Queue: 2 jobs
Job 1
Amino acid sequence: MKKGRLVSLPSLREAARRNPDSVLPRQRAEIRPSAFLVSWGQEKLFCIRTYGCQANVRDSEILRLFLLQMGMKETEDILRADFVLFNTCAIRENAENHLFGELGRIKASVLSRRAFVAIGGCMMQEEKPVSTLLSRYPFVRLLFGTNNIERFYELLEQALREEDTYVDVRSQPQALVEYECEQEKGRLSPYSAFVDITYGCDNFCTYCIVPYTRGRERSRRKEDIVREVLALKERGYRQVTLLGQNVDSYGKDFHGPYAFADLLESVAQTGIDRIRFTTPYPSDFNAKVFSVMARYPNIMPSLHLPVQSGSDAILRRMNRRYTREEYLNVVRLLRSMIPDVFLTTDIIVGFPGETEKDFQDTLSLCEECQFDGAFTFLFSPRPGTPASRMEDTATDEEKHDRFERLKDRIDQLATKSASRTVSTTVPVLFEEVSKRDPSRISGYDEHGRLVHVTGDKSLLGTIRPVDILESHTYSLIGALHDEGPSF
Ligand code: 5AD
Ligand code: SF4
């Protein structure tokens, strides 16, 4: 292994420790680059590659702000960048192959241009990829994790001053940081913003690496969240998405009565146009949350409620804390309180020990729930998690076959759900001009469906009624209601 400056290496074992009594320091941090970093950053281009979930996207926005504050400019062209940052994901194994492939692809240009490569995010919290990087990719100069993003400037300055690879990954969260800087400058969209409400996860589903890579669950204070939403609204943002691995655990660490339903209500009362949230955990979800959703028209009628499996035996082995029937009861309650709700889910196929009967239970659950869409995943064993040590019975062929059958069924359900919108008029928040065709503008309806219309960029950031003319499995084609059909 290359020597490097190994300040702190990851340890999944250490990361699994939970000490609920220890109080994390809360910091307000106005984060500014040193004169050294500003002078280094002048005239340089940076490129960020982000993998994984919205929590990573949000972290990348913070890091993007840090790089902009150093005077660097952004480029999409990784081969032209002087500073390359990978924000990695660890949820599935193929993320590693993907990262190493990308590093191989840019190696020659990095070496010839003496570009600086930094890697952060969930994968850096794992021992194996970090040791592979140290031994096989010596041109990578800085490795850091999810628990010390707020120290990014310090780490970067150290790495720039040393000749060797600098590694500082902390296995435990160090503090809960409220950034006091011009956050909107780092945000990727001027209309729609992610707002963290909790960090980490204490659920320890047996397949999942997140409780190790993102640490113990901790909640931001209500005042900080509401202040952030109000500031976004004032700057013209139309939508916020509240983020947490487990949004309904919000506030548990405060040991008080104020819970997720209360936070959702406080955010709704800011009057921002659209509120979404992700991700809830089925058994913690209750009538109180649904009642807030039903009462506030600015909370969007869509819910992504991961079920993972329709078989009780598999749910137990996954350490999910609900049964199939309990999940179905939550869905029934939801549909009775918010009849037009758009319901999506996550499903894992090929969990160790899954039989054809277990798989049939998943298929029949999909029928009963009539999901509007779903993310489907083939089980991927993550070293360090209990499921990676469980005995497997199905062959790869059987698992792939189940995966395809499930995907087909989900596509059919999604197509059916999308077709119901044809000939209706829905409000759409426009967010993007098509890269291929500048006369095509895209946005999302209240359910979160992608809608394309013909229009110009003056539509961006507006919410306009759209007549839906045509539906595809994962998108809709429409025309602005006031202008008549244009497709
Ligand atoms: N293998 C396959 N899918 C996984 N997920 C999490 N861990 C794994 C794994 N080891 C899926 C779950 C989760 C989504 C974000 O990723 O379905 O809800
Ligand atoms: Fe992973 Fe389960 Fe936590 Fe979701 S709830 S992040 S699947 S451990």
Job 2
Amino acid sequence: MCGIVGYIGTREATPLLVEGLKRLEYRGYDSAGVAVQNGTGVEVRKTAGKIARLEELLTEMPAPGAVGIAHTRWATHGAPTTPNAHPHIDESGQIALVHNGIIENADALRRELHEVGYEFHTDTDTEVLAHLISMLFEGNLEQAVAATLTQVEGTYGLAVLSALDPGKIVVARHGAPLLLGLAENGERAMFVASDVAAVLGHTRKVVYLDDGELAVLRNDGYELMDLGSLDPSQPPRFIEKEISHVTWDLERIERSGYPHFMLKEIFEQPDTVRNAMRGRVLEEEGTARLGGLHGIFDRLNAAQRIIFTACGTSWHAALVGEYLLEEYARIPVEVEYASEFRYRNPVIPENTVVVAMSQSGETADTLAALREAKKRGATTMGIVNVVGSTIARQTDGGVYTHTGPEIGVASTKAFTGQLTVLSLFALMMARRRGMSILQGREIVAALRELPEKVEELLSAQELVSQIAAQYADHPNFLYLGRGAHFPVALEGALKLKEISYIHAEGYPAAEMKHGPIALIDEEMPVVVLAPNDPVYSKVVSNVEEVKARGGKVIAVVSEGDRVLLEKVDHVITVPSTIEMLQPILTSIPLQILAYDIAVRRGCSVDQPRNLAKSVTVE
Ligand code: G6P
């Protein structure tokens, strides 16, 4: 998804901007560009394709100057061409801007601007902003930006510079993340970015913007103000904000020797599972302590219903959460696609807690669903990875998964981090609703052993790799599971299709006979989740149904399984644990299988085509 980086200081801007853009590559993009303001005006260099192409362009035609903005674009309005790439400029070429989000009334604005003589050179919604700022410019850039934004409907994270009001970058936020980076070691410089990864090479001191805020950056500092207060007839309302110190390491964002981020992240799971529960497990009391829920304990105690809302992998995690909370805490749970929830007319009775589940904390649909739930009076809670993200800040209470940055577009460690937190949440809720201390202690003991089991599981990578070698050229896969392993099957299928472009479907194992069974023949690999749990014998029957039709079965089973060993084509064994935690273990071989197949097919594992890491548009 689109990324923004900006720099104003005393050094050459373009190397810093390009470096920042590279840190955002993981988000997925299809074009890139920079604009630099210097003594002679504004210089723009942009291109369709990869950042490497932009670097070539900058070598051929350097753009010197110490004030610059840059962008990676993920096309929404208009094809990924060079003209459509950001930055966009006004007709004079003196104002340049980069924009994340969507201007919803762009067509109407374009018509109006056209009528008064403005020519458009791109298919983007963003170009209207450049012309509008130019039309409203009366000598002060922030006032022109603010006046423009009063006419705009939609979402934006915006950075603007101009040779007509030099020595500043104006940034504003509504619905698309933006943060300021404060230079360290006495350097006179400021950064702006849509993602902290872009500035981490230079500073750990950041200020997160909220919706409705505008900031003016100069090389000696910044002013933050309420966007609505920039009426030239009145003094602006300045905002004082706390500086956040980012603790994530740049090194952690880099690959540490692994060929792909995805593999690195798969192998980090013993640690990330451990981090998700660090300081949260109470041995004696047999429960979990989740400090971020402190303010909503009363409402959680009174809750009669929980609704999860999420997208993609996070939606799958939420489905596992439904099983855990209903099974252990006996509380009714629903799981909703955020994109559906926000436009339905959802019934939210009193005493409902709505949980937004999101790795990035910035997914547009999840955020909108959260706001809808708030509007309807629900207590809101977040289960989020990125600290300080919008969802994390807008919920009444929450639990961070503490997974660290996830760069591979296909989510892996974030998923198991979410499952770990869901187990802690289910345990805590269950203990408040009558689960015995003894059962609580059993769960705690199993949680403690979990990271080692993940480690053990990862050492069996070679076996999964051999299986991958046999099936990498198959065009279709089916994934089956029951109970909490049905969402694991969905997630396994999603991983495979995301990164290997193989068509894969997840299905509840018993439901297979109502349709997908028609697809089964010798060419159809079927991945079956069959750990030792109460529905094991039922799953074995489903396996028989597949085998009777010649399907090839790859079964994920618990250690010690003898029954399926005799019946299926391949067995992947996972260590035994309690039922609550099994999905964490069974999902990992499916990640490795998808990864290995994608590598064998020569796919771009970390940046699969058409996908974005963080989807900040609807
Ligand atoms: C995108 C990503 C998925 C992710 C989904 C939800 O589609 O490619 O990997 O699961 O967004 O993202 P979130 O950050 O809200 O978990």
